[in-house]
Amino acid sequence: MGSPNQPIPHNERERLAALKRYNILDTLPEDAFDDATKLVSYICGVPIAHISFIDESRQWFKSEIGVGVSEVPREISFCRYTIMESEMLEIEDTHLNEKLKDDPNVTGGFKVRFYAGVPLTTPDGYNIGTICAIDHVSKKLDENQRNALSIVAKHVINQLEVNTKNIELNTQKKIADRAVLAKDSFLANMSHEIRTPLNAVIGFTDLLAQTKLDNVQRDYVESVQIAGENLLLIVNDILDLSKIESGSLTIEEQPFNLKKTLKHIYNLLKVKVPENVEFNLFLDADMPEVVIGDQGRLNQILVNLTGNALKFTEEGEVTVSVKKVDETENQYALRFSVKDTGIGISPNKLKTIFERFTQAEECTTRRFGGTGLGLSIVKQLLELHGAEIQVKSQKERGSEFFFVLNYKKVKNAEIVTGAAPGENLGKLKILLCEDNILNQKLIKSVMDNFGFELDIAENGEIGINLLSKNTYDLVLMDLQMPVMDGYQTAAHIRNEMNLSIPIIAMTAHSLVGEQEHCFSAGMDGYVPKPFKQPALLEAIKAAIAKNNIPVQKRNVDLSYLNEISCGNLNFKQEMIDLFIAKIPNEVKQLQEAFNDNNAERVQKLAHHMKSSLDMFMLEDLSSCLSIIEDEAKKGIVSVTIQSEIKMLDSQIAEVVKILKEL
């Protein structure tokens, strides 16, 4: 639409760069732009309207009414003149315009008689396109129409800005998500790499402490034990902080003996009390014996606070006290206090001591050690409980940290009084699946101490071979092994060998939800490394006792399939046969896509499989696929996806087995 002359803006290079920043060319239609075009047609009363952008060689229409094409060459467009202007270009009658009266689209073609175009001007002043109203008859816009057209043009630019900002935000979000994922993966992997040798260091030191030593040797061994415990505490602090940040750490609600827990903490810490410090535990006479809550997290909070108080108190006293401050029909409100006569905290530091990696004074770390993570974790754990940590302190006079926790009351039916597993387990025969030589030697020594017989398999495949030849009372299963890992081995033992032998997972990894995945894969216990001998023995006792209870097999719910089959048994059987033939293969494809680092294919496969699982009412496995799909949407395959695929693989195998039996 125009003369062969090609008007070029003086800032053409910069104008084209501004246009490309918006990534708008050759994009799909969008309602916001189509609505703006309709509005222009309505306001101006014209049959032709469009929003277009002009690059080096063409005029491309993002939205149009009455044009019928997606683009035209730049040299025949009217809008090449509009982008030269700073305001609206209005031509009331093209027949009277010297530049346009002989144009083919005036004398024929679109038969343009009236043209009004507003340049689409970016915030930095570049005309990248136009919004136009065109008619086959001459006319003149009134002031309101001209203003409205200019307002719509600004709206179009604002829409471009919003789209660009959203793209930038999504890009930044993906980068942030990948950074968080990388951080979590790094922390989990580093946890494994640190915990594996640390397990051997702590374990062999404990064994050494049980031998006959002279006073100097015992002093050295105790020093190594303290250093190992401190290192483990730092690793656990970092991992807990990561779990809290990711929202993966939850507060459990189980009945526990509160008084025993508090006395255990007191006995645990009193061995660390300095010579000139008096350590007290005061419990309210009205305090309940048993409550419902998270025993482990209370232990963690009080050990952190009391450990700090003992560390920063060189003389005087440290007192832990618990008092009932309120009681309702369903719960108790208990005030916990840790008070000391230690170095105290400056008033200007009280607000910052709960920030991570922060300590009250710069010299504190050099003098007393520590990471500065303890109080930050305490604060966040209490917030998860719906409580708040408070502190009162005076420099060189001491400090008091206190908080109020609400615990649910225990009903009689919730108090478990069953007998604990017997102390004398006899001479158990145990199979250890573990690839790390140091850990093999350590666990062999520990089992000898317990009086148990131990066979060792370097991977799951060897372990399965030994299980097929020998009779064992229990399996200790490392999760990360070559050839066949712990999950695959446990699934084979349960689904292929049909063995109910107790399996205890042992891992130096600390992935979110790993314990739950172990139980879902058919394991009976979970012991994190580094382990303490009493904790391992308790896990063995519990697993042996649990083995006397019949294992609950998965129940496949066919109610929905029965409903949609309307009594057609052939259709129902066909659906079952399709599931058996199709789903295990799709799980295999999912694993292959993960191995190829193909996040897009992982996402599509997971989404596609969900409908099949929903038909068989496999809600837990469908949720597993949702987790995989959501993770894959981030554009990167993660350790979380791998963990979910492993669980999915073992559980699908069990479902297929049940369906075949049907």
Automatic annotation (TrEMBL):
Where is each Response regulatory domain found? 429-544
- Can you name one GO molecular function term for this protein? phosphorelay sensor kinase activity
Pfam families, per database record: GAF, HATPase_c, HisKA, Hpt, Response_reg
Topology in membrane: Multi-pass membrane protein
Keywords recorded for this protein, A-Z: ATP-binding, Cell membrane, Kinase, Membrane, Nucleotide-binding, Phosphoprotein, Transferase, Transmembrane, Transmembrane helix, Two-component regulatory system
Catalytic activities: ATP + protein L-histidine = ADP + protein N-phospho-L-histidine
Residues bearing PTM Phosphohistidine: H607
Q: Which Gene3D superfamilies match?
A: 1.10.287.130, 3.30.450.40, 3.40.50.2300, Histidine kinase-like ATPase, C-terminal domain (3.30.565.10), HPT domain (1.20.120.160)
- Ranges of residues in domain Histidine kinase: 189-409
Q: What is its EC number?
A: 2.7.13.3
Modification 4-aspartylphosphate, positions: D478
State the protein's name. Sensory/regulatory protein RpfC
One cellular component (GO) term of this entry: plasma membrane
Q: How does it assemble?
A: At low DSF concentrations, interacts with RpfF.
Please state every residue range assigned to the domain named HPt. Answer: 568-662
Where is the protein found, in the record's own terms? Cell membrane
